[in-house]
Amino acid sequence: MGGDSGPPVTVPAALAALKKHPLLQITLVGDEQQITPLLTSLSPNDATRVDIVHTSVAISAHARPDKVLRGSRDSSMFIAVDRVRQGLADACVSAGNTGALLMAGRHLLDAIPGIDKPAIMATLPATRSGGYSYLLDVGANVSNNAAELYQFALMGSVLASSLSERPHARVALLNIGAEANKGTPEIQQAASLLADSPELNYIGFIEGNQLYDGVADVIVCDGFTGNITIKTSAGAVKVIQGLLTKTIRAGWYFRLLSLFARPLLLGIQKELNPARYNGATLVGLSGIIVKSHGHASQDGFEHAIRHAIKQVEDDVPALIAGKMNHASE
Amino acid sequence: MGGDSGPPVTVPAALAALKKHPLLQITLVGDEQQITPLLTSLSPNDATRVDIVHTSVAISAHARPDKVLRGSRDSSMFIAVDRVRQGLADACVSAGNTGALLMAGRHLLDAIPGIDKPAIMATLPATRSGGYSYLLDVGANVSNNAAELYQFALMGSVLASSLSERPHARVALLNIGAEANKGTPEIQQAASLLADSPELNYIGFIEGNQLYDGVADVIVCDGFTGNITIKTSAGAVKVIQGLLTKTIRAGWYFRLLSLFARPLLLGIQKELNPARYNGATLVGLSGIIVKSHGHASQDGFEHAIRHAIKQVEDDVPALIAGKMNHASE
């Protein structure tokens, strides 16, 4: 039910994912009056892999997370997360209210032993390689100590290796300089922990302007910094897209030109296509929860489902638990 | 002597500023063998407004700030800042090593009474209005408490009003959400201080994606967050510029098109022109120090000089001292 459009985006995305993944089964949790009409295109065969759990309660995108717990037990989001808790689902994918999803995850699922706080890991474009980097935490926490940053590094490393199919993920700490003496005491302590860990391929500090260079697979920071970082990036991209539009509208030459330039602009938009980067993971809980952006397209939501499938295939929570076990020995 | 190019950029910029500001006098501090040949275009009249203080010592862009104090007393940067201390100059403008400039400022100049820590204030494009917003601190500090954030707000408000010639600058705190309960304890305490201050036009929290919307004239955050924020923005802009170039080179159609699209790209580059946003101020000291970006163009460096002139005309340090006096009554 979540996201700007709700079922008209999430349901077709789910059906598209079913076609591509023959072993996938999907439970759609929400208002069956809205969902059922969207299932008419299902083949009888595929229909056996979809079921609906009906509820008419949905958490609003604008609900305050601190008000969410009361009266939300019957909401589609809580029911979906609770199916993960009960083992009725391997993962939950939602485009709904991030704060509420975090609340539901923390409330219903146990933390992985050894993990103090869950984090949200976002996908970033790594422009030089054409691949991805991963940034965590982008907002599950307000501040984090060195031990938590170290746990984020371990979790991010496991998750990035699963999602990118690249072993020995390169892990960096986001800092205000590359020199060893830079940053807060928390970051300096975290740097020692990361450098000393045989579990990690730690490459040192990176600065904000290197975030999109693909120099690291996993970039670790506290939740406050990460949240402002991804939102600032979105703001900067919006500025340039606005300038492109404004410039094109500025005169007849550009309006004419824009007809010919359309493929150029489409090419850029394709590269920047947010659908490719959609799918943030709530990591650190004993269950898989993937958060889609609220205004993700059908392709974007399908991408988030794919993130969940990869994590199920690799059993990422068990891999993280194993690492934590190993790290504490 | 500072910046990627040194005197070939900074000296012509100084001469251009002299032409536009009839009352301006400029002291060029550095290697006279490099400076003198760049002064041949000076009219005899303008030549009376320029003098050179020679030194052959210059602090490298890569010098570590913690190593700078030793043996830097004779450097062009320290001499330039010291002339402000002695009252021989009203302001110092440098494109050199930021950490060293901060060190020189802190070492040679007194703090304004009531200001615990100086801050660096950067200029941001405010895209909707076509004007500017100002962000501080962008890296003079690693962490800041509520009282310091409040002082940043007061200083930023005075400085923004001077630079933008706009009274009652709108002041916001950068946070991870707009609701009153969001953010760190420091930010929540700072929000109370700002809201209670009759000296400030406080408008509340803004998030990272609103940084360039022009909704606030002054945006306040700790030095760690601010530093990562501006560097991340630069990284995101670089990504898109790279995509534009890559797309244009991708095929004959785009190469042909790019001939016609050149004005479009130039228009965008003009809007994004970093020269327009060049000039960060080291604020909180009893003297005016403006930092130009190391790879600023001549136009950019001239813009930084203009920032210094405006602050001299308004006597910004005295205005800040007056506000602090008032605020503590």
Automatic annotation (TrEMBL), chains A, B:
Its main location: cytoplasm. The keyword Cell inner membrane does not apply. It is found in: Cytoplasm. GO terms for cellular component: cytoplasm. Keywords: Cytoplasm, Lipid biosynthesis, Lipid metabolism, Phospholipid biosynthesis, Phospholipid metabolism, Transferase. It catalyses: a fatty acyl-[ACP] + phosphate = an acyl phosphate + holo-[ACP]. Catalyzes the reversible formation of acyl-phosphate (acyl-PO(4)) from acyl-[acyl-carrier-protein] (acyl-ACP). This enzyme utilizes acyl-ACP as fatty acyl donor, but not acyl-CoA. This is Phosphate acyltransferase. It comes from Pseudohongiella acticola. The gene is plsX.
